[in-house]
Structure formats: C-alpha cells, structure tokens
C-alpha cells in the first residue's frame, strides 16, 4: 500500500504590511541555504563532529592569501607577510600561512613559543606587543628575531641585555601617529608628531650595540579608509629618510601592521560589509603608490611587511549550530535560542554576522532576535535578523568567523567545541578537540579540608 | 468557537485585508490553510488533527505554533470574539 507523503512543515505566520519609511539599515533576508562547505554537507559535519562546530576551509585561506599577495606583489617589488598569531593561532591555521611563505608576528612569549613550535626560524619572527619579559627578550635576541620596541623601558632593558648577550639585537620601533582617522591609536609605541619616535630612533642609532632594522606601526583595526595607510607609510618613510640622512643607515623594512577590514558588517553600518569594505587592491594601491613615489633610491627601497590577520582568515571560518527553541518576547517579537553564545562567538559584539539556514526554506521570514544558550542577559548573537522560519533542531551557518573567535573564545558556562578543517580534497580533519569536564577539572586543585562532602 | 471576522478578505496567495481597520497582512500558505479552516467553523482540535495528517511535524510543535498563530490573529483583531462571551 502506498503511504501518503506528508508535506514539509513551516510554522504559520502572519505579518502586518506597513508602508512606513524603509529601514535605513536595509535588512536583508538570508533565504539561500548553505547546505555544504567545500563539498561537505553541513548535516554530515554536525552528525559526525557535533553542534556547535567551528569549520575552517583550507582552500579559502590559501585563495585569500594568494589574492592579498598578488595585490601587493604586483604593485611593489619587496613584500613580506607575517601571520598575526593572535588572530587565529591554531597550529594548523598558522602552518598554512607559513607554507604560503608568511613569517610569524607574535605579541607574547606564549605566541613566540607557538611560532617556534610551528618551525618558524627565529629570524622570521616579529615580536610586537607591550609586554615582553626579560626572558622573552633574551630568547628573541638569541634567535635574532625582529624586536619591535613599544616603550623606553623596553629599549633600556634591551640595551642592558645587549651588554651581556652576543648577537646584536635586531630592533625596530613601533610608531603611533595621526593618520586622519578616528579613533587615533596612540597607545602602541612612540608618537610621530611630538618627536618621541625620532628621539627613540636617535637613542638606538647612537648605541653601538643595537641594530636598527625597521619601522613599524599599527594604526587601527577594521580600517575602512585605505588612505590612512598611505599617510602612515608617508610618515614612516619620513623617519627612514631622516635616519638615512643623519646616520647614513638604511632601514631595511617598513611594517604597516594589520587592520585591513574583512567582509564582515560592523554593527550600525548602513550597508553590508562586502558591498562597502575596501579590497586588498584598494589597500595595496594606497600603500604601494606612497612607497614607490617616495625619495628612496631604487636600490634602497625598504621591504614592505604586512601583519594582516583578520582579512586573510575571516572568510574561511564558519560556525555551525542548531536551534534550541523559539519564543516570543513581551512585545511579540520572535526570539530564537541557538546553541552558540557570545562565549564562542566573541565577534558578535562587533559585527552583525551573516547567518544562513543549512536547509531550504520558503521566502517567508520573521524579524528575529538570536539569543545564545548562556544564562546571561548579554548573550545576544544578533539583535535583529530577518530569518526564515527556523524550527527547533534546524541547523544554520554563521559566516566570516575565522578571525579572533578561535583565540578570544571563552570557556564559560559551556565547553568549547571541536574545530574542523576541510582540506582542498574535501576531507574534514579535527584540528582542535572539544574540551571535556576532565580536562577542566584536571587544572584545578581542591585543598584537603574542602574535599569532604557535607551531603 | 473562534471565527475569522466576516468582512476580512484573504487571497489564495496569502494577502489578507481587514476593511474594518484598513490594515493588510501577508500570510504564508500553512497560515492561509488555518484561516480557511477557522472560517469554515472548525475547532482548534479539528485544525490540529487536520494539520498533523498533512504535514511532517510532531504534535507538540504543531500545538505551540498554532497557539502562537492564533494569538497573533487575536492581537491583530481578525477574530470575532463575540462567541467567547458565551463561555
């Protein structure tokens, strides 16, 4: 006997049609489902590795890196990328960038050791950050790493160490400056406009034990104005030419730090990020034009170092999740609870992440608030998203999560999930195991007098 | 028994107009089916079992979503509440 096939269910909705002013934020409904990542069905990934699940695409990382490298190397003869460890320091991710030719850019002793562990030669590690201990500095001098000095206290520590240690420390200074953007970052390094930077360079050049190799700046994050990099490059060039003129010394590289925007949409933006954010070509054009047209003689052009992180890895990261429940708020607004909270998706504080269903839906949608699973009022993944009618148990994909989430996530209330990387042949590999209760407990110590239970 | 107000017009494509208030609404196909059953005078129980026989869904979810939908019909004043006074 033929069994009657039941129809696919979609919850009933009624929506009032209003002819008021169009929404200036241009709410867009993500109807198009993302059912697979690099050919691997989302459903299979969740069945095999659980939900929530971070997924990284090796193919996308390599493709994005090559696009960035092409944008710069076609415009400037000497370009070197250094992978920003803090953006995503999972070893598998770092190793892709190192295989593609990136050096390592680290900001702590922990990250420095991770880079060494990943096989990066000491002289290809750039050491940034305001906190470098004496041990960190000793190690990086021995390894002939590039030490980017953040403050005078650090400079004096290095001068002191240089008295005792054999290799000459290879140093650069970090320069902060007004590049015409708001907010102006002035917390890293020495200021250009008030002469601090020039003063620090003089101190280094007049010390026979130090080797000044470069100039560095980190002007901001998620930069939407390429011209700010042109301004930064011009100011670093001015310092480099000043050193050349006064001390007949060539600065070997100019490091413009990171900060290129990715395809995410910042909260409060009128238009979606992919439509408005500058491309690698935009940044490359602004920076390279400034360097090429500077007063360096052709043979003396410094190497351009870029510590781009976010823009290289964001697009390659996906976070897969599951709907826990649907509710109505006191005002009747649809609210949906998902198994991903701000503990895993730290960047939901900054972005309106693109979220798409992982199965087909009709074109009907509801304005939805997405709450995470934490018992905390701040746990809001999207304040307002126009989403199809997701049911309990449905899966979804959060896009552009490759940067910062897998380094800034918190072990808070829930355990952190697995991270899977899909290789170019479409094979998933677990690159970080999920946490377990035993792992968390193994780091704790309970004093004897607190071991006896009163129950 | 709940009944959709007599003067409320709804098209097959889900466009709903309430001439009493001048308001228009968009309803998805399953919602149109429920409104038509309410109009035919079917009870909530009858609607529920009809839906469960047609759609691939569990009874709990159907119950929850139906209550939610009817709640909105009431909120938008599309249901005649006269009969409720007799209860």
Short summary of the structure?
The complex is a heterodimer of chains A (455) and B (87). Chain A has 455 residues and is of the alpha/beta class. Chain A has helices at 42-49, 58-73, 91-99, 109-117, 134-142, 152-164, 196-205, 227-247, 273-276, 280-292, 310-313, 405-408, 437-442; strands spanning 7-8, 14-17, 36-37, 40-41, 53-57, 79-84, 103-106, 125-127, 146-149, 170-176, 190-191, 211-217, 253-255, 303-306, 317-328, 334-338, 355-357, 365-371, 380-388, 395-398, 419-422, 428-432.
Outline the structure in words.
The complex is a heterodimer of chains A (455) and B (87). Chain A has 455 residues and is α/β, with parallel strands linked by helices. Chain A has 2 domains: 36-56 and 316-437, Lyase, Ornithine Decarboxylase, Chain A, domain 1, CATH 2.40.37.10; 58-314, TIM Barrel (Alpha-Beta Barrel). Chain A has 13 helices and 22 strands. Chain A has helices spanning 42-49, 58-73, 91-99, 109-117, 134-142, 152-164, 196-205, 227-247, 273-276, 280-292, 310-313, 405-408, 437-442; strands at 7-8, 14-17, 36-37, 40-41, 53-57, 79-84, 103-106, 125-127, 146-149, 170-176, 190-191, 211-217, 253-255, 303-306, 317-328, 334-338, 355-357, 365-371, 380-388, 395-398, 419-422, 428-432. In chain A, strands 5, 15, 16, 17, 18, 19, 20, 21 and 22 form a 9-stranded mixed beta sheet that branches. In chain A, helix 2 (58-73) runs parallel beside helix 10 (280-292) and helix 8 (227-247) runs parallel beside helix 10. The longest helix of chain A is centred in the middle third of the chain and has 21 residues, at 227-247. The relative contact order of chain A is 0.16. The mean pLDDT of chain A is 94. Chain B is α+β, with helices and mostly antiparallel strands and 87 residues long. Chain B is 45% helix and 20% strand. Chain B has helices at 29-39, 44-54, 59-75; strands at residues 3-4, 9-10, 15-18, 23-27, 55-56, 79-80. Chain B has 3 helices and 6 strands, in the order ββββααβαβ. Chain B has one domain (3-81): Arc Repressor Mutant, subunit A (Orthogonal Bundle). A 3-stranded antiparallel beta sheet of chain B has the order 2-3-4. A two-stranded antiparallel sheet of chain B has the order 1-6. The model of chain B has no long low-confidence stretch (mean pLDDT 88). Classes of the chains: A alpha/beta (455), B alpha+beta (87). Chains A and B meet through strand 1 and strand 2 of A and strand 4, helix 1, strand 5 and helix 3 of B.
């Amino acid at each position: 006997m033929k069994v009657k096939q039941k129809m696919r269910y979609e919850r009933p909705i009624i929506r009032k049609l209003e002819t008021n002013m169009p929404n200036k934020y241009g709410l867009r409904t993500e109807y198009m489902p993302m059912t697979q990542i690099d050919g691997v069905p989302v459903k299979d990934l969740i069945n095999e590795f659980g939900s929530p699940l971070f997924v990284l695409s090796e193919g996308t990382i390599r493709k994005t890196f090559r696009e960035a490298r092409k944008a710069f190397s076609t415009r400037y003869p000497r370009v070197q990328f250094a992978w920003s460890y803090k953006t995503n320091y999972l070893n598998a991710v770092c190793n892709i960038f190192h295989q593609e030719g990136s050096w390592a850019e680290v900001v702590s002793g922990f990250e420095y050791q991770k880079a060494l562990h990943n096989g990066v030669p000491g002289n290809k590690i750039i050491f940034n950050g305001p906190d470098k201990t004496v041990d960190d500095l000793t190690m990086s001098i021995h390894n002939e790493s590039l030490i980017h000095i953040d403050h005078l206290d650090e400079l004096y520590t290095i001068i002191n160490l240089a008295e005792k240690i054999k290799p000459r420390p290879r140093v650069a200074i970090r320069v902060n400056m007004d590049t015409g953007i708001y907010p102006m970052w002035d917390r890293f390094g020495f200021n250009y406009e008030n002469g601090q930077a020039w003063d620090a360079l003089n101190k280094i050049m007049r010390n026979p034990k130090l080797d000044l190799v470069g100039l560095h700046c980190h002007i901001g994050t998620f930069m939407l104005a390429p011209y700010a990099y042109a301004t930064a490059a011009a100011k670093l060039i001015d310092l480099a030419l000043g050193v050349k003129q006064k001390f007949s010394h060539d600065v070997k590289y100019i490091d413009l730090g990171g900060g290129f925007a990715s395809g995410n949409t910042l909260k409060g933006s009128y238009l979606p990020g992919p439509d408005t954010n500058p491309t690698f070509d935009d940044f490359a054009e602004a920076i390279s034009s400034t360097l090429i047209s500077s007063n360096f003689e052709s043979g003396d052009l410094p190497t351009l170092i870029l510590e781009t992180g976010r823009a290289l890895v964001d697009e390659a990261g996906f976070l897969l999740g599951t709907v826990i429940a649907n509710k109505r708020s006191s005002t009747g607004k649809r609210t949906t609870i998902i198994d991903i909270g701000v503990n895993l998706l730290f960047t939901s504080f900054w972005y309106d992440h693109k979220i798409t269903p992982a199965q087909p839906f009709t074109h009907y949608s509801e304005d939805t608030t997405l709450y995470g699973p934490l018992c905390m009022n701040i746990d809001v993944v999207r304040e307002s998203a126009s989403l199809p009618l997701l049911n309990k148990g449905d899966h979804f994909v959060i896009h552009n999560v490759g940067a910062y989430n897998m380094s800034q996530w918190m072990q808070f209330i829930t355990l952190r999930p697995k991270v899977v990387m899909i290789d170019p042949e479409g094979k998933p590999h677990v690159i970080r195991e999920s946490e377990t209760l035993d792992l968390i407990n193994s780091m704790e110590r309970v004093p004897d007098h607190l071991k006896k239970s009163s129950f | 028994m709940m009944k959709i107000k007599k003067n409320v017009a709804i098209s097959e494509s889900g466009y709903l107009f309430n001439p009493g208030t001048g308001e228009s609404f968009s309803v998805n196909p399953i919602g149109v089916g429920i409104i038509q059953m309410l109009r035919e005078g079917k009870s909530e129980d009858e609607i529920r079992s009809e839906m469960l026989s047609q759609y691939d869904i569990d009874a709990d979810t159907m119950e929850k979503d139906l209550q939610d939908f009817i709640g909105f019909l009431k909120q938008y004043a599309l249901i005649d509440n006269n009969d409720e006074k007799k209860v």
